[in-house]
TrEMBL record, chain A:
This is Sugar ABC transporter permease. The chain crosses the membrane at residues 6-24, 45-72, 105-125, 137-157, 194-216, 237-262, 297-317. It is found in: Cell membrane. It comes from Jiangella ureilytica. InterPro entries: MetI-like (IPR000515), MetI-like_sf (IPR035906), UgpAE/MalFG_permease (IPR050809). Its main location: membrane. GO terms for biological process: transmembrane transport. SUPFAM superfamilies: MetI-like (SSF161098). Belongs to the binding-protein-dependent transport system permease family. The lineage of its organism: Bacteria, Bacillati, Actinomycetota, Actinomycetes, Jiangellales. It is a multi-pass membrane protein. GO terms for cellular component: plasma membrane. Keywords: Cell membrane, Membrane, Transmembrane, Transmembrane helix, Transport.
From TrEMBL, chain B:
The gene is ugpC. InterPro entries: AAA+_ATPase, ABC_transporter-like_ATP-bd, ABC_transporter-like_CS, ABC_transpr_MalK-like, ABC_transpr_MalK/UgpC-like, Mo/tungstate-bd_C_term_dom, NA-bd_OB-fold, OB_MalK-like. This is sn-glycerol-3-phosphate ABC transporter ATP-binding protein UgpC. Keywords: ATP-binding, Nucleotide-binding, Transport. GO terms for molecular function: ABC-type transporter activity; ATP binding; ATP hydrolysis activity. One of its GO terms (biological process) is carbohydrate transport. One of its GO terms (cellular component) is ATP-binding cassette (ABC) transporter complex, substrate-binding subunit-containing. It holds the Pfam family ABC_tran. Residues 4-236 form the ABC transporter domain.
Length: 327, 373
């Protein structure tokens, strides 16, 4: 049985390789036979073709279909016909969506700024202590943990027992040990959104730290020496020399984290399932799609989400271009 | 403005036994232009960085004026440094680069603008003040680095090979500009270079270092005329001095067919240290083609002739039956002689050179130290 599978895998790989080779080779031949000049114009399309096809198939086409669905009257009692912007009107007038929008904004504001702050501070400070590598490794490890597992871990961290009972949650154990009252972190609406963002931060800060760590290494030592000779204190040298040097990196990390915040789903789904006012746009979309089975409504929420991500992605790509172009 | 004193200053890099800078004693006068020169790895840059506070001092002390700065952080030393790669802040304009130290010091904006403007005028940078370093040529960047130092009006200027990234022609003109600027400002300057021509042309005095040890401090001509040991003799001067170990016998120094008369006092000193050989050095310009009736001389087989217009240099190797032994005992790669450019020999020719009387340099075989006649 397993032998069959191996043979099948090898055969499939061989077919893909041969087909790919044949595509390029024959395509190249065919283009070469064309009149002069055509080759130069068409060759890039030949080589980029498969990748363009993949992007179109896996990204662009579904996006268009999603936008299309958002205009359809679907779901329970839906006519299946054109609905205009009714789905948008419906979801935007819904209190649940409005809470989710508000929370998504909270995520988008807090997660990038905290990730930049924590990542940068740890990257800078760990350069200056003896066990810096150990600290960096500890902060980096959560990257390897799936979001669902992280959600479970932090559910334990945030666990709540009534006052007087033994606190099984790490955080409440600490709070009560210090003489405080236990807090229902993920139920209490005053804390639960921050608790979820905190858990996500734990999975993402390591990424930010690694990026900043690499960027810090690219700051020429001579520049810092020059700043010190110019009379700058350590803080002034950091603020006037290191930080401006890191600005492109800050932008990259912040936009990446913004996208993570906009896409936030798994941690919320695992820890609260959007209850207690912790919904974000993607959990609303998920329920519209799989619980209410309303493709139109889900499409509308997805489109709203997509429209908020696009400008940030454009900013990110521009920054990336500027960086690679300047080098 | 101030004096700078290295008092047995020592730097031992962690993990090494041999000091990078070994008990450096050096007193630099107020307003002086002192050049630290030596081959790479000799400790000259380390010495400069110790003075800047960028390198720790493991022993001894460093003083600027009366202040002991041995363990003072760089920011409190009132020193400006020009780095080899200029170390301009890439995100700041030329004006901001030059005014950065003043801004940190809390000088008012008007005062900064005035002083930056003055320095820019002095360095011909006025039209570039709003540019970023990236948009400047190498020479302009070098001038901005100079400007950043000048604006400070520090007690001491430090320059770490500031010309090594410029092309040959610009290097020569900038060299003169820096020297004249320093003279005009009168600020004590320590300048590091590996290029002995730079050292000779710029410094009031030149300190030669080798393997972490100070070899000699003197005026450029002093170093050239009276090198205190074999290392300085071989390092200073371009083309380099011819140096070889000669046998001493009957008031003459001989090496194979080469034969040079030596003063009786030198012969006596060689005998005194119980040796029968001496290191003899003579500069290319001290050699003259011998007329046939002279006795002695140094037979040379011409390999290459360099025609420079004003001068011509003959590069050759020892000729004669004992040529191999001679080549072994020659410290330099070849024998170099300056000759009349309009009357230069052809390659392959054999010439007998004599050393102009009184222009020889003698060094002890045992210690390498100079022997004075």
């Amino acid at each position: 049985m397993i032998g069959d599978r191996i043979v099948l895998t090898l055969a499939a790989t061989a077919v893909i390789v041969v087909a790919g080779w044949a595509y390029l080779r024959l395509g190249d031949r065919a283009l070469a036979a064309l009149p002069h000049g055509a080759y130069r114009r068409l060759a890039p399309w030949l080589f980029a073709g498969p990748a363009v096809a993949m992007v179109l198939l896996a990204l662009a086409v579904p996006a268009v279909i999603t936008v299309g669905w958002s205009l359809v009257d679907d779901g329970d009692g839906g006519s299946g016909g054109f609905a205009g912007f009714a789905n948008y009107a419906q979801t935007l007038s819904d209190e649940v969506t409005r809470v989710a929008l508000r929370n998504t904004v909270l995520w988008v504001v807090l997660l990038p700024s905290l990730a930049v702050l924590v990542g940068l501070v740890i990257a800078v400070l760990s350069e200056r202590v003896r066990y810096g590598a150990l600290i960096k490794a500890a902060l980096f490890l959560p990257i390897a943990i799936s979001a669902v597992a992280a959600g479970v871990i932090w559910s334990f961290m945030y666990d709540y027992q009534p006052p007087g009972a033994a606190q099984t949650g790490t955080l409440n154990a600490v709070v009560t040990a210090l003489g405080g009252e236990p807090v229902a972190w993920i139920v209490d609406t005053a804390t639960n959104n921050y608790a979820l963002i905190g858990a996500t931060l734990w999975t993402q800060a390591g990424f930010a730290m690694v990026i900043f760590d690499a960027a810090l290494r690219s700051v020429p030592g001579e520049l810092l020496e020059a700043a010190r000779l110019d009379g700058a204190s350590e803080w002034a040298a950091f603020r006037h020399v290191t930080l401006p040097f890191l600005m492109p990196t800050v932008v990259v990390v912040a936009t990446t984290m913004t996208v993570v915040a906009l896409k936030a789903f798994d941690i919320v789904y695992v820890m609260t399932n959007g209850n207690y006012g912790t919904d974000v746009l993607s959990t609303v979309m998920y329920r519209a799609l799989f619980t209410a089975k309303d493709n139109g409504l889900a499409g509308a929420v997805a489109t709203i989400l997509m429209l908020t991500v696009v400008p940030i992605m454009i900013a990110n790509v521009r920054q990336f271009r500027r960086e690679t172009g300047a080098a | 403005m101030a004096t700078v004193t290295f008092d047995k200053a020592t730097r031992i890099y962690p993990g090494t036994d041999k000091p990078a800078v070994d008990a450096l004693d050096l007193a630099i006068e107020d307003g002086e232009f002192l050049v630290l020169v030596g081959p790479s790895g000799c400790g000259k840059s380390t010495s400069l960085r110790m003075l800047a506070g960028l390198e720790e001092v493991d022993g001894g002390a460093i003083r600027i004026g009366d202040r002991d700065v041995t363990h003072m952080p760089p920011k409190d030393r009132d020193i400006a440094m020009v780095f080899q790669n200029y170390a301009l802040y890439p995100h700041m304009t030329v004006a901001d680069n030059m005014g950065f130290a003043l801004k940190i010091a809390g000088v008012s904006k008007d005062e900064i603008r005035r002083r930056v403007g003055d320095a820019a005028k002095l360095l011909d940078l006025t039209e570039y003040l709003d540019r970023k370093p990236k948009a400047l040529s190498g020479g302009q960047r070098q001038r901005v680095a100079m400007g950043r130092a000048i604006v400070r009006e520090p007690q001491v200027f430090l320059m770490d090979e500031p010309l090594s990234n410029l092309d040959a022609k610009l290097r020569v003109s900038t060299r003169t500009q820096i020297a004249s600027l320093q003279r005009r400002l009168g600020i004590t300057t320590v300048y590091v270079t590996h290029d002995q021509v730079e050292a000779m042309t710029m410094g009031d005095r030149v300190a030669v270092l080798n393997a972490g040890l100070l070899q000699q401090v003197d005026s450029p001509l002093g170093l050239y005329d009276k090198p205190s040991n074999v290392f300085v003799a071989g390092f200073i001067g371009s083309p380099a001095m011819n140096i070889a170990t000669f046998d001493v016998k009957d008031g003459r120094a001989t090496l194979g067919n080469a034969d040079v008369a030596i003063p009786a006092s030198i012969a006596a000193k060689v005998a005194e240290e119980g040796s029968d050989t001496v290191v003899l050095g003579f500069r290319p310009e001290s050699l003259t083609p011998a007329s046939s009736e002279e006795t002695g001389g140094i037979p040379v087989l011409v390999d290459v002739v360099e025609e420079l217009g004003s001068d011509a240099y003959v590069y050759g190797r020892p000729a004669g039956p004992a040529a191999e032994e001679q080549a072994d005992r020659l410290r330099s790669d070849q024998i170099i002689a300056r000759v009349e450019p309009r009357n230069a020999p052809q390659k392959g020719e054999k010439i007998n050179f004599t050393v102009r009387q009184g222009s020889e340099h003698f060094f002890s075989v045992k210690t390498g130290e100079r022997l004075e006649p």
